[in-house]
Write a structure and sequence with these properties.
Elements: H1 3-17, E1 24-29, H2 40-51, E2 56-64, E3 67-74, H3 77-83, H4 98-110, E4 115-119, H5 125-132, E5 136-141, H6 144-157, E6 162-165, E7 181-185, H7 189-204, E8 211-217, H8 235-240, E9 244-251, E10 263-271
Parallel strand pairs: 4-5, 4-7, 5-6, 7-8
Antiparallel strand pairs: 1-3, 2-3, 8-10, 9-10
Helix pairs in contact: 2-5, 4-5
C-alpha cells in the first residue's frame, strides 16, 4: 500500500474506533508496520514534533489497524485567532496532520525536488518534516505568533529549519539560493488565488531559476469553475502559469478528520 493510501486507511479506521471529544486531534504510529512502513527514526521525530508543540495538550494510546498508535489531542484557537487578523486573502492557521505533512514532502522528494518552501507555514510542520526527510526547508509565515511558535518547537526538538516572518506576496525568493524547489501553497483555492498568483509570478521571474514545483491543496467538493477535477479548483492558476500537473495525492487534514473524503494536493512543475 502506498504511503498516502495507508494514512487515509488509518484515518478511516480511527474515525470508527476513536471516541474522544477533542475537536482537534491526529494519530501517530508508535512503531513501523507493514501497513505504514515509515522508518522508526522518522516516526520518533514526528512524535517529537507533537510532544514539543504546545497546541497538543494530551494524548492516549490506541491500536488502529493493528498498529500501536498515539492519538494527540489539542486546541489551536489561540493561534487561529492570531492568524485571522491578517488580510482575508491569507489562509487562517488550520494545519494538516503531521503524518500527512511527511507524506507530502516524501512525495516531493520522490518527484525529484530538493528543497521545500512552505508558504503560510503555520507551526512549521511541513518544513520540519522536510528537514526530517533530508531536504532543505524554509517556511514563510506572516503571523508573528506562529513564527515564534516555530522557533520554540525547533529549539526543543533540535530540528532546525529556515523560518522567515514575511508577506509571501512581497518576499524576495532569490535570497534563499533556491535550486529545484517545491513551493507548498498553504491556502484553499476559494481564497488563495491571489496569494498563489503573486508567489508563482515572483518565483518564475527570478533570474537563473531552472525549474520550480508548486503544490496546491484543494477540495473534492465539485466547483463550478473547475472543469478538470484533477486540478481541484486550481485550474485557472495552473493554466495561466503553464504548469504541468505531475500528481495528485489525497491525505487527511484537520478539517476532514470527521469526513469520508480527504484533501487532495496537486503537484505541479514549471520547467524553463
Amino acid at each position: 500500500m502506498k504511503l498516502a493510501q495507508a494514512i487515509v486507511a488509518l484515518k478511516a479506521e480511527l474515525a470508527r474506533s476513536y471516541n474522544g471529544a477533542a475537536h482537534f486531534y491526529e494519530v501517530m504510529p508508535l512503531e513501523p508496520s507493514n501497513i505504514l512502513p515509515i522508518d522508526a527514526s522518522i516516526l520518533s521525530l514526528l512524535r517529537r514534533f507533537a510532544e514539543c508543540n504546545p497546541i497538543y495538550s494530551r494524548f492516549c494510546d490506541l491500536s488502529v489497524l493493528g498498529i500501536p498508535c498515539r492519538i494527540y489531542e489539542g486546541d489551536i484557537n489561540e493561534y487561529w485567532l492570531g492568524s485571522i487578523k491578517h488580510d482575508t486573502s491569507y489562509q487562517a492557521f488550520y494545519p494538516t496532520w503531521i503524518l500527512s505533512a511527511y507524506a507530502l514532502v516524501d512525495k516531493a522528494k520522490s518527484l525529484g525536488f530538493g528543497q521545500v518552501v512552505d508558504i503560510g507555514s503555520g507551526d512549521g510542520r511541513i518544513s520540519y518534516c522536510a528537514q526530517a526527510a533530508g531536504m532543505r526547508a524554509c517556511g514563510i509565515e506572516i503571523d508573528e505568533g506562529l513564527v515564534e511558535l516555530q522557533g520554540r518547537i525547533s529549539q526543543k526538538t533540535g530540528v532546525a529549519h529556515d523560518t522567515r516572518r514575511a508577506d509571501a506576496t512581497r518576499f524576495d525568493y532569490s535570497s534563499l539560493g533556491l535550486k529545484n524547489p517545491a513551493f507548498f501553497i498553504s491556502a484553499m483555492p476559494e481564497m488563495g488565488e491571489m496569494l498563489a498568483n503573486s508567489v508563482i509570478s515572483r518565483v518564475l521571474s527570478m533570474p537563473g531559476m531552472q525549474g520550480a514545483g508548486f503544490v496546491f491543496m484543494g477540495s473534492h467538493t465539485p466547483k463550478k469553475y473547475s472543469r478538470d477535477h484533477l486540478q481541484w479548483g486550481w485550474g485557472s492558476v495552473i493554466k495561466s502559469h503553464r504548469l504541468e500537473v505531475l500528481a495528485t495525492v489525497t491525505l487527511p487534514t484537520q478539517w476532514t478528520a470527521d469526513q469520508e473524503m480527504d484533501t487532495p494536493y496537486v503537484f505541479t512543475r514549471r520547467d524553463f
